[in-house]
Amino acid sequence: METRVAVIGIIIENKDNSDKVNSVLHEYGDFIIGRMGIPYREKGISIISIAVDAPQTEISALSGKLGRIEGVSVKAAYAKNL
To answer: Which one in 9, 57, 58, 59 has a CA-CA gap of 20 to 30 Å to 2?
Structure first.
């Protein structure tokens, strides 16, 4: 199956749901190339960027699951077809 490379940006405004975010990320761990997390204490949020190489359907599913978590915002940016 053809895969795409993408970066998923995640902003967690409700830290009570951080465990839910980590659980979803663990579920898709086979597709994750790398992860960077930044706690922005002054604003009370966490910022996470995830690099993935996965089928389009899996990237969409991952983004969708994360976006349905309360207090979590998600956006995906895709590389051109490689």
So the answer is: 9
CATH class of 4-78: alpha beta
Residue closest to 62 by CA, chosen among 4, 16, 1 = 4
Share of the chain above pLDDT 90, in %: 93
Domain boundaries, the chain: 4-78
Q: What is the mean pLDDT of residues 5-33?
A: 96
Q: Write phi, then psi, for 29 (nearest 5 degrees).
A: -55, -30
